[in-house]
Q: What sequence folds into this?
């Protein structure tokens, strides 16, 4: 009995020793020399491997950081400036501050605003529905509503609103990793700077149908009426293909465009509704007052002279829009690479793959 | 036409056979075997089967509903019923209820739901449970009641033909001597022999097999390749030494071979996709079964053989991909005589 | 001639296939001529390739046969006016693909045809044109594949110089359930069809042509066998009733035993396949100088009052066609352009008939929704029925995981989208939806790279 125990122990010990020796030599032989800073940088990174930085994972990003020794073109959107600061500290180089971004949904075609015209009954996936046909509403541009963006989000920063049928971004959780932007087959999600006071002004519509059609298919479709263009004093609004677009770099968040938008497709994230309502009230009062004044003046002039009003308010508006459009055209020729135009012109609208 | 049109990708028609119908078909195919079990073991068989089905269905529903928060119905896709019946088929008819419960928990909870439910389990749930019970409760699992065509709950227990064979070989009896102690061929075929609840009657199994093949639920590939392999291998040994090794027919008709071939190995989830893969799978089960029976310490090896081959299924699938259309053109390209042909453009 | 031996000597493709209920309700309905609609909507992209360039303006008068949109580049097709009247407007409208595309709306006034079109029923059997002239005429007449793919025929007939065609196959299989347009065509215009085959044989310079017909159309097989008895080089082959027997690759395999290599064309194995409808259009274009302005279409469905086969003008809204056959049945849930296996469901009734619309199928509401989906039970039925030897379950899983590179390695691009896998799946899984997504994404990535 004791003998067999002894043998067992001896044999196992011997085996263990042999294995240890082999392991020792193998690990020496196949040792991969790696810059220790890569591991250090990786420790700092959020380890989500989301690909938001443009690299396939955190390790690849760390490699790139250590290799380039320059943070001007490298940024981890998930970690944000804090993490990038730590990365800079590890490498002893200067950190580059980047504005935080957040995803916004540029569609307000909720169940109420945009009536269904048929029932989709295929696999529950936006891309599959989008490649099949123009959609279960008459709008061929807007949200499909089958939650591809929510499914792809690694950070639980999105959910589908069951009342509206549209995705909602939870700003605090959104890391601007770009996953939903690339996933959306209709290109309605866009990354925007979080903005001053956490406010963003943007057009929550991507419909490029002409005015007459867009109005019928969705009650909040941007019809390209150019009212906002007329109001904007900062040249921040571009109207192209019957669709307005707000240039975030130029927008000063004066909210005049939001106030004036009659279909309410101009959105203001982070601005309390009451404020807009108050603005609208004030404007309406002001306009009523002006109108009364003009009428009184017109009456006075008509009494004096039958030739009457020189410039009607409508003509005035047309002239203003023309001026604003000219300004926009000028700006376009001067600077064709503004972010906004890039987004608009990159959209592959109208040439979705057709199934034959 | 007041309502909106439905738009969906093609195809717009569907074959009639759907999962619940497949499952119901399998259940119908098991009815003859169940009837024979009741005939053989009386109320005990009914009791065990009912308990097992109730436990399995209940556990599946509870896990779906409360653990995974899925919207589901009690019967859902009917697969838990099959697992329940199969589990009952694999145990003796006098098994106490708490062991059945443990079996059901292992079958549904451990071996099916923990992998994600129907379709995701690598191993046949009923067999995992059987093997689990066999190793955990060896005594209860091998005290088979002697078949009595009465409706008695309790009965004497006795050994199975395979058990007699293994035991006899250990003490040095020859096969013909042992065969004398056992029932005749026809009893084997009809199912008047000792064993687990549902595995005795080859006849009932064949009925089930015929029904499932008629309804195109399963193809012949797995059962036939498995049975043939067993016949060929045991036949070779029997020809070599009939005193040492039993007749191939004996191997086919006793133990769990028929049950395994018809209901266990043909489980969609745990068998290969292609016909070629199915044949490899069936042959593998046959070989392992024969080797366990003839040279292993257990009298019966079908369960182990199927479980072992289950593990090989992903690999079989990988190496038995269907032949792609166009991988061979069957066309000899003629030599092109380049003649200047004006192309209209 | 022993007819029985023809029917018994059937051939078929080998791999996979399914047997959906045939439901050929309109097999005995003669072709009726549908009068021109009040307003026609003619899309400029009714074919594979570049959309045609519009040559008319709003307010312009057109006659039947006038070119209203010219081909853009070589892989494109002319679009002719199918009605006479005034061009009302040019705007984006829904077509049978389910997307809004540029279309010309024409208000119909009378029915005035171009004078050079021969509208007499006389047979013209003498082929005067040379091979090149035939292809040129086909090109000018806007003939595209009428079987469903709508590939411009002149491109197909213009075989690359390094390929030798030894067989012309005529596709009269019509394996889609419900559809009978090709069946009626073969029964009612067999002489024209045979001259069309001769025209194609001359254009291609081949001396062997085989008409493949599924064995559920015995009258057509019998008629064409009798008529081709004296025709040298033209034969008829009865084929087993199995879907997708009429797939180009399956037909080649069935009739000649050859397999088109992955990513290749039938010309790679010396074959060219044309649909019988296309062949008739070729006859009319070449012999009668008639551009492709109408086609034979089946309107069918279990609840339709008067299902039938109609000769309709391209651009007729499907509503007009449905009204001609008794209106939309009350409980219609889905309207499909094409057959039930590969057709496209239409979102509304104003979509016009396109060149490739082989049928309109009205499905009752009770059958128009998909059944509850279950987990994959790994039964392998999709692998068993795939006529291309693919593994649909695997391709779907890969597609769901965005793993399109891997599915390309698993030959996903070979998929002919016949729908057999999704048809047969007992778990009702949307296999083809996901496979199509994979195919589209791979193609998109390829065009982006190029």
A:
């Amino acid at each position: 009995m004791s003998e067999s125990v002894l043998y067992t122990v001896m044999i196992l010990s011997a085996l263990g020793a042999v294995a240890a020796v082999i392991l020792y030599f193998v690990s020496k032989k196949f040792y991969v020399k790696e810059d220790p800073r890569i591991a250090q940088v990786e420790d700092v990174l959020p380890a989500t491997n989301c690909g938001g930085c443009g690299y396939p994972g955190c390790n690849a990003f760390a490699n790139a950081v250590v290799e380039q020794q320059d943070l001007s073109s490298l940024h981890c959107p998930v970690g944000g400036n804090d993490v990038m600061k730590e990365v800079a500290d590890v490498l002893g180089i200067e950190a580059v501050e980047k504005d935080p971004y957040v995803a916004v949904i540029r569609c307000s075609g909720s169940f109420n605003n945009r009536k269904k015209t048929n029932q989709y009954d295929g696999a529950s996936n936006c891309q599959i529905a989008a490649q099949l046909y123009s959609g279960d509403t008459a709008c061929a541009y807007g949200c499909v509503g089958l939650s591809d963006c929510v499914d792809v989000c690694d950070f639980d920063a999105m959910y589908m609103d069951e009342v509206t049928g549209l995705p909602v971004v939870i700003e605090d959780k959104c890391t601007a990793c770009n996953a939903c932007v690339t996933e959306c087959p209709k290109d309605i999600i866009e990354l925007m700077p979080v903005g001053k006071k956490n406010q963003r002004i943007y057009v929550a519509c991507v419909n490029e149908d002409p005015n007459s059609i867009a109005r019928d298919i969705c009650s909040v479709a941007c019809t390209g009426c150019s009212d906002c263009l007329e109001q904007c004093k900062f040249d921040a609004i571009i109207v192209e293909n019957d669709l307005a677009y707000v240039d975030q770099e130029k927008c000063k968040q004066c909210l005049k465009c939001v106030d004036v938008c009659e279909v309410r497709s101009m959105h203001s994230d982070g601005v309390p509704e009451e404020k807009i309502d108050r603005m609208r009230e004030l404007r309406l009062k002001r306009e009523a007052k002006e109108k009364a004044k003009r009428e009184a003046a017109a009456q006075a002039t008509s009494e004096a002279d039958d030739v009457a009003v020189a410039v009607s308010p409508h003509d005035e508006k047309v002239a203003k829009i023309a001026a604003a459009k000219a300004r926009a055209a000028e700006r376009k020729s001067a600077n064709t690479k503004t972010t906004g135009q890039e987004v608009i012109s990159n959209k592959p609208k109208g040439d979705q793959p057709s199934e034959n | 036409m007041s309502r909106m049109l439905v738009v969906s990708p093609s195809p717009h028609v569907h074959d009639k056979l759907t999962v619940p119908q497949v499952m119901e078909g399998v259940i119908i195919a098991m009815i003859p075997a169940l009837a024979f079990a009741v005939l053989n073991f009386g109320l005990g068989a009914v009791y065990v089967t009912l308990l097992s089905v109730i436990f399995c269905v209940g556990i599946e529903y509870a896990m779906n509903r409360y653990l995974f928060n899925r919207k589901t119905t009690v019967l859902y896709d009917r697969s838990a019923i099959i697992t329940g019946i199969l589990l009952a088929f694999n145990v003796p008819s006098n098994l106490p209820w708490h062991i059945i419960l443990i079996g059901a928990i292992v079958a549904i909870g451990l071996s099916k739901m923990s992998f994600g439910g129907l379709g995701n389990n690598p191993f046949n749930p009923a067999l995992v449970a059987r093997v689990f019970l066999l190793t955990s409760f060896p005594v209860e699992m091998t005290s088979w009641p002697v078949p009595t065509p009465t409706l008695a709950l309790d009965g004497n227990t006795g050994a199975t033909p395979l058990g007699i064979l293994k035991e006899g070989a250990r003490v040095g009896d020859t096969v013909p001597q042992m065969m004398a102690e056992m029932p005749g061929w026809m009893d084997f075929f009809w199912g008047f022999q000792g064993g687990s609840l549902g595995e005795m009657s080859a006849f009932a199994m064949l009925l089930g097999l015929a029904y499932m093949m008629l309804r195109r639920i399963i193809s012949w590939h797995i059962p036939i390749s498995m049975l043939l392999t067993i016949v060929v291998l045991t036949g070779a040994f029997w020809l070599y030494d009939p005193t040492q090794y039993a007749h191939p027919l004996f191997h086919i008709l006793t133990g769990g071979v028929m049950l395994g071939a018809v209901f266990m190995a043909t489980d969609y989830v745990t068998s290969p996709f292609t016909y070629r893969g199915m044949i490899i799978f069936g042959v593998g089960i046959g070989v392992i079964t024969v080797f366990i029976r003839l040279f292993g310490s257990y009298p019966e090896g079908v369960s182990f053989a199927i479980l072992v081959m289950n593990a090989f299924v992903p690999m079989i699938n990988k190496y038995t991909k269907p032949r792609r259309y166009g991988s061979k053109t069957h066309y000899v390209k003629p030599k092109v005589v380049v003649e200047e042909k004006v192309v209209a453009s | 001639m022993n007819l029985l031996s023809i029917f018994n000597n059937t051939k078929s493709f080998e791999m996979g296939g399914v047997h959906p209920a045939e439901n050929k309700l309109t097999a005995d309905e003669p072709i009726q001529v549908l009068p021109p609609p009040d307003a026609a909507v003619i899309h400029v992209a009714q074919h594979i390739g570049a959309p045609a360039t519009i040559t008319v303006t709003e307010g312009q008068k057109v006659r039947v046969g006038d070119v209203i949109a010219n081909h853009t580049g070589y892989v494109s097709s002319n679009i002719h006016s199918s009605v006479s009247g005034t061009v009302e407007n040019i705007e984006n409208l829904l077509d049978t693909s389910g997307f809004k595309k540029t279309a010309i709306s024409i208000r119909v006034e009378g029915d005035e045809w171009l004078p050079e079109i021969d509208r007499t029923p006389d047979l013209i059997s003498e082929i005067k044109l040379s091979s090149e002239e035939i292809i040129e005429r086909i090109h000018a007449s806007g003939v595209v594949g009428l079987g469903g793919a709508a590939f411009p025929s002149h491109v197909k007939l213009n075989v690359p110089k390094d390929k030798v065609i030894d067989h012309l196959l005529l596709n009269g299989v019509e394996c889609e359930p419900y559809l009978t347009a090709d069946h009626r065509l073969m029964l009612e215009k067999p002489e024209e069809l045979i001259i069309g085959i001769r025209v194609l044989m001359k254009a291609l310079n081949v001396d062997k042509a085989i008409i493949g017909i599924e064995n559920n159309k015995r009258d057509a097989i019998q008629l064409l066998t009798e008529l081709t008895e004296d025709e040298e080089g033209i034969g008829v082959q009865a084929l087993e009733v199995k879907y997708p027997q009429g797939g180009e690759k399956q037909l080649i395999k069935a009739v000649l035993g050859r397999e088109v290599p992955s990513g290749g064309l039938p010309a790679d194995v010396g074959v060219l396949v044309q649909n019988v409808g296309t062949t008739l259009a070729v006859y009319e274009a070449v012999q009668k100088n008639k551009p492709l302005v109408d086609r034979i279409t089946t309107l069918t469905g279990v609840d339709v009052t008067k299902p039938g086969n109609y000769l309709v003008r391209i651009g007729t809204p499907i509503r007009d066609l449905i009204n001609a056959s008794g209106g939309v049945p009350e409980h219609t849930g889905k309207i499909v352009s094409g057959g039930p296996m590969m057709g496209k469901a239409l979102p509304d009734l104003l979509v016009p008939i396109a060149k490739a619309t082989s049928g309109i199928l009205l499905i009752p509401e009770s059958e128009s929704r998909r059944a509850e989906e279950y987990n994959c039970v790994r039964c392998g039925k999709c692998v068993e029925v795939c006529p291309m030897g693919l593994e649909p379950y695997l391709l779907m899983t890969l597609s769901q995981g965005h793993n399109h590179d891997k599915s390309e390695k698993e030959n996903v691009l070979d998929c002919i989208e016949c729908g057999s896998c999704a048809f047969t799946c007992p778990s009702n899984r949307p296999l083809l939806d996901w496979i199509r997504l994979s195919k589209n994404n791979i193609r998109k990535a390829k065009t982006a790279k190029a």
The mean pLDDT of chain A is 82.
